[in-house]
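Lecture 7 notes: from sequence to structure.
We start with the chain below.
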Amino acid sequence: MSVKKQIEEWFEHFHTYPEVSYKEYETTKKISQLLQGMEVAHHTFDDVTGVIAEIGEGDRILAVRADMDALWQEVDGVFRANHSCGHDANMSMVLGALSYLLDKPLGSRIRFIFQPAEEKGNGALAMIERGAVDGVSHLFGIHLRPQEEIPFGKVSPAIHHGAAIFLEGRVIGVDAHGARPHQGKNALDPIFAISQFVKSLHFSPYEAYSAKLTKVMAGSDNVNIIPGTATFAMDIRAQSNVVLESLREQIEKGIQTIRELHGVEITFEWTDYTPAAEVSEEAANIAEKAIIATVGKEALSSAIITSGSDDFHFYTIKRPHLKATMLGIGADLSPGLHHPHMAFNREALYIGAKVLAETLQKASFLD
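Predicted structure tokens for the same chain:
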């Protein structure tokens, strides 16, 4: 069977059987079976999902990462696991690249990291803790891109993701009758104050950033009760890690001031932090040469800058010596990533696998 046909079959399998973060049990088993069939050395873990495989020889190691998990979302009125972020495609392209490389000369060892829980924002950390990038000099990733970024046939050597963090909070005031607001402490007032406060935060206009409320829950079936408790959530993003940290500090100070002003208790915690990309120029240059060699100069796209985030960048945050980049594959993907009915041109899988294989082979022969 041709590698292209195998890639199509792998994608169909992963797409048909999605699994959410840290529950990718059957996905882990399937990848392990495929690697066993290819006679590729690999191992799994007793305490977490994921697979690490390796080919080639030598002291030098480079690596590539594929994320495995699906989202949990509503699809046609039913909540279920759904591969609307394209991780089924990422796994298929990485397995395809591995297949292409089995018959190619290599100048170093190449490690294949099949990582769980990217959507949780901490699967990369789990792999780092388990030695996935120990001894690795260069790290590559790959991801399909929506059509508004690059069209089908174009390939980018780097994706500059932004940083993101989420806040979940709770306001604790005092319930009151709607006719007697002075007897209580309305939990909604400080939440509205927080909403207005984050709109007043300003940084350089050359920096991309945003902070906004994404969830507010308060009250009951009785509309004549002023709610004393409420929960809320915020989504905070920035294109740089420095700006995100400044946003975080100012939001904490603002909440403290609003808490004192309204005389209520406000508790909160920060969750699911993912850092902005730290792209290696050297790694991106390797990918650029591989793109040109595989699909031609006309297919080469410039680096992609996106407000989306990816826990791939924890690898470079935690291991600063790593030279890393993530390739972006044009696929006419629409309506967009995370849309429940996301679709794309599946010929992009073949292009991505070929370009990734060429990138890894070129990187393996670096001095």
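Points to note: The mean pLDDT is 96. Residues 253 and 365 are 51 Å apart (CA to CA).
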